[in-house]
């Protein structure tokens, strides 16, 4: 069975992106899902000086091991000031120092949601531009606007058009695993 690594790119305990990532990962049949929590990878803020003094932080290596063990990666990005959350960016910076390929050309499903009408589309643009350029495999994307109106616990996406659009992207990702 194919294995998907999923996480919300947020450190909030009540993260709606974590909720969305778990929903998306579990919506795929016949796929083994591993969920990770960015709080388990909290490191000092990356700096080249820290790296020179102490080497790459062990938690960055551990994060990369999860990526390595997966057939595909599904991430839902929290948007903080139109960009990645500091929690994700810090892990990304540390782990990006290990080797050139970050996602090993594995299929990526990039999601974002926010309480607002833009649905984290600006951070999703950043992630999609960066990872679709660097990654030779399928990279799908979907932004869910107005999370609290369009997503209900136990039901998932309740807006029909959004739900259809979401499953189109999810199926593309699954087919590439
Ligand atoms: C520091 C900070 C900056 C934020 N900036 C944005 C933003 O630029 N765009 C946006 O749509 N929401 C922004 N928000 C609101 C987040 O979308 C909201 O907190 C959302 O719940 C974050 O996702 P999470 O619950 O998965 O952490 C911001 C929230 C915080 C705490």
List the helices and strands and how they pair.
Elements: E1 2-9, H1 16-26, E2 31-35, H2 48-54, H3 58-69, E3 72-77, H4 86-96, E4 108-113, H5 121-134, E5 139-144, H6 147-150, E6 151-152, E7 156-157, H7 160-176
Parallel strand pairs: 1-2, 1-3, 3-4, 4-5
Antiparallel strand pairs: 6-7
The structure holds flavin mononucleotide.
What is the N-to-C order of secondary-structure elements (H for helix, E for strand)? Answer: EHEHHEHEHEHEEH
Number of helices: 7
Q: CATH class, anyone?
A: Alpha Beta
Question: Low-confidence spans: pLDDT under 50, at least 5 residues?
Answer: none
CATH superfamily: Flavodoxin domain
Largest sheet: 5 strands, parallel
CATH topology label: Rossmann fold
**What would you call the structural class?**
alpha/beta
CATH architecture: 3-Layer(aba) Sandwich
**Helix percentage range:** 40-55%
The number of E-state strands comes to 7
**Assembly state (oligomeric):** single chain
Quote the average pLDDT.
97
First-last Cα distance: 10 Å
Small molecules (ligands, ions, cofactors) in the structure: flavin mononucleotide
Order of strands side by side in the largest beta sheet?
A: 2-1-3-4-5
> How much strand content do the residues show?
15-25%
Would you give an account of this structure?
The chain is α/β, with parallel strands linked by helices and 177 residues long. It has a single domain, classed as Flavodoxin domain (Rossmann fold). It is built from seven helices and seven strands, in the order E-H-E-H-H-E-H-E-H-E-H-E-E-H. It has helices spanning 16-26, 48-54, 58-69, 86-96, 121-134, 147-150, 160-176, and strands spanning 2-9, 31-35, 72-77, 108-113, 139-144, 151-152, 156-157. A five-stranded parallel beta sheet has the order 2-1-3-4-5, with helices on both faces. Helix 4 (86-96) links the parallel strand 3 and strand 4 (108-113). Helix 3 (58-69) crosses helix 4 (86-96). The longest helix is centred in the C-terminal third of the chain and has 17 residues, at 160-176. The chain is globular. The model has no long low-confidence stretch (mean pLDDT 97). Flavin mononucleotide binds at residues 8, 10, 12, 15-17, 78-82, 114-116, 118, 120. Flavin mononucleotide is lined by residues 8, 10, 12, 15-17, 78-82, 114-116, 118, 120. InterPro entries: Flavoprotein-like_sf, FMN_Rdtase-like_dom, NAD(P)H-dep_reductase. This is NADPH-dependent FMN reductase. GO terms for molecular function: FMN binding; oxidoreductase activity. It holds the Pfam family FMN_red. Residues 3-141 form the NADPH-dependent FMN reductase-like domain.
């Amino acid at each position: 069975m194919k294995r998907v690594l999923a996480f919300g790119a947020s450190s909030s305990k009540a993260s709606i992106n974590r909720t969305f990532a778990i929903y998306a990962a579990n919506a795929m049949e016949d796929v083994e899902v591993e969920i990770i929590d960015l709080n388990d990878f909290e490191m000092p803020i990356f700096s080249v000086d820290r790296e020179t003094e102490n080497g790459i932080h062990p938690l960055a290596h551990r994060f990369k091991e999860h990526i390595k063990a997966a057939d595909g990666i599904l991430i839902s990005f929290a948007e903080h000031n139109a960009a990645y959350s500091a929690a994700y960016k810090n892990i990304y910076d540390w782990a990006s120092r290990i080797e050139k390929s970050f996602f090993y050309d594995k299929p990526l499903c990039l999601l974002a949601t926010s309480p607002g009408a833009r649905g984290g589309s600006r951070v999703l643009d950043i992630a999609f531009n960066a990872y679709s350029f660097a990654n030779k495999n399928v990279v799908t994307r979907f932004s869910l606007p107005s999370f609290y109106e369009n997503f209900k616990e136990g039901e998932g996406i309740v807006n029909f058009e959004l739900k259809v659009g979401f499953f189109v992207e999810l199926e593309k990702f699954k087919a590439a695993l």
